[in-house]
Amino acid sequence: MNTAVIVFPGSNCDRDLAVAFEQATGKKPHMVWHRETELPDGIDLIGVPGGFSYGDYLRSGAMAAQSPVMRAVSDAAAKGIYVLGICNGFQVLTETGLLPGALMRNAGIQFVCRDVKLTVANSQSAFTSRYKADEEILIPVAHHDGNYFADAATLDRLEGEGRVAFRYAEEVNGSARNIAGVLNEGGNVLGMMPHPERMSEAAHGGLDGKKLFDALASA
Predict the structure, then answer these.
(1) SS3 assignment, position 196
(2) To pair with 183 at 20 to 30 A between CA atoms, which of 86, 91, 124, 201?
């Protein structure tokens, strides 16, 4: 599997994501600068990493969504290529329109940084096939704007179509219905607020995040 990691000014989890991709696939990912207009040939999986793209000015992810490379990412997603957006990457994907909803300020108006328990709401996607349905896993979060919001009709549609991938097992940031990860209609785009790449080695304290990358590597 050939992978790419998009890099914006202010990305600070791009190297972490690149390491997780390489460990799962055995190949170094392409690091793609935000001003590129095309992706390398033969890419199977694109990662949009966490951080503070463009310093979170205007609105988290809003400026990054206008970067030239995101047009190429959108085109790739439309062709069925896998796209994983983590934390700020999730924000970028909603701002780009690849995923519904929006990420708002945490309900407590504070930065949240700690390990949290998640429940696997959909174990049938390419991203979650190594998990069991309703499995409880431990993944770190680190965000200030992680409160997932969508109107009731959208939330009902996401749940009815099995597009909620992960839920918080406890209230973390005020997210609607405790949603921590959302899939697109085609099932090839996932946005999630917790950081699976930070729980992908035993030295990190656990391997719950590694299952996600291993699932993608075998997809």
Answers:
(1) helix
(2) 201
pLDDT at 59 over 90: no
Q: Which of 137, 143, 144, 149 is nearest to 196 (CA)?
A: 137
SS3 call for 16: helix
Q: Which residues contact 217 (CB under 8 A, 6 or more apart)?
A: 1, 24, 25
219 token code pair:
């997809």
pTM of the model: 0.97
Task: Report the alpha-carbon distance of residue 159 to residue 152 in Å, rounded.
Answer: 11
Instruction: Decide if 88 contacts 53 (C-beta within 8 A).
Output: yes
Token couple for 154? 């959208």
What distance, in Å, lies between the first and last C-alpha atoms of the chain? 9
Q: What are phi and psi of 210, to 5 degrees?
A: -60, -30
Instruction: Name all domains of the chain by residue range, CATH numbers in brackets.
Output: 3-211 (3.40.50.880)
Amino acid, res. 197: E
Taking only the tens place, the pLDDT of each residue in 66-122 is 999 999 999 999 999 999 999 999 999 999 999 999 999 999 999 999 999 999 999
Q: How far is CA 21 from CA 49, 73, 92, 132, 194, in A?
A: 12, 17, 20, 22, 16
SS3 state of residue 59: coil
Catalytic residues: 87, 195, 197
- Reading the block at residue 101, the tokens are 């909803």
Output the CA angle 47-175-85, nearest 5 degrees.
5
